[in-house]
Amino acid sequence: MVRNINRDHTRFKSIVKGKIKKDLRKYISYPGLIGKKGKEIVSIPVPQIDIPNFRYNNRDVGGVGSGEGNAGTPIGIGQGEKGEGAGNQPGGHIPEVDISLDEFVKTIFEELELPRIEPKGKKKIIHEHHRYDSIAAVGPRSLIHFKRSYKEALKHSVGFDGKIDFKKQISLTGSRGITRFKDFKTIEEPESNAVIFYMMDYSGSMEDEQKEIVRTEAFWIDTWLRKQYSGVEVLYILHDAVAIEVGQHKFYNEKSGGGTIISSSYKLCNKIIDERFNPNEWNIYPFHFSDGDNFGEDNTACLNLLRNEVLPKVNQFCYGQVKSPYGSGAFYELLKPLSEENDRLVISKIEDREGIYDSIKEFLGKGK
User: Fold this and answer.
1) What is the pTM assigned to this prediction?
2) CA 197 to chain centre
3) Fold of 193-364
């Protein structure tokens, strides 16, 4: 019976995994999955799957055709049907299956076929951990190694005739020098860490829908990079004509307004890298999202900053252009020649929520 249950559970998980792969674009672009049930669990709507459950037969209710009725009476109308006034019966809901975030992420990135990232450098913070791989003659009682202590006790129990009396009680702690303890050595390892910069245009042409697309894509980028590095720091920069460093909440909720000078965000990003994140010690990932509408005289400054200052210091710089009814979209075309010249610059157009899937694959597909 247990084997049958395990087999059925494995099959059910396989069905759910197949459902995720089939509707991958929808799930990646669906903001309701993000943090819906905490950081470790996500809920997957699966309308084509019957979730296993127990059903009990109500023996007091007759079968099909039981009871009296009149000619012409419609079949199957109950208290929950559409009619006048409020009903008192539950309606049909799409069932959901809870799976761990790790399992969900693994399924998604398997389907995206993203390569593992090769870290560019090691952050010079030493992480210490202890490895218990040796034996000592002294130590706390909590670290007694019973097997080794027993061996020592047996040695001390050997008689003059070379024999051991196993009927005699053997004490592990009765004689001095018998007890053995687990001992450790300290292992020092440099941590491989990364810093992510999220820069977003919050000028008047960036509306709530564009911000939601950025938020959703940033969530999946965060999730992937955290799987690659032992530690990830995240910084947020907003810009219109002026760039400012902000917290996560303000990044996604600040009201839009003002003109657009993109170079202000690149200058601030470059300044923070120089002051706080040595490129020889950090893996650096700036992501910039905009609708592509920039003050014309600023374009040359943007190209010079990227080519001469920012790109030489980072693993990869990603520019995502979110389609807006008000933005010109010209900045993407400006960056295109530079992206062909330098593979550290990756650019992507995000037409709508469906475009998040392709954008993530473009950004993370090189494994830098």
Assistant:
1) 0.62
2) 16
3) Rossmann fold (3.40.50)
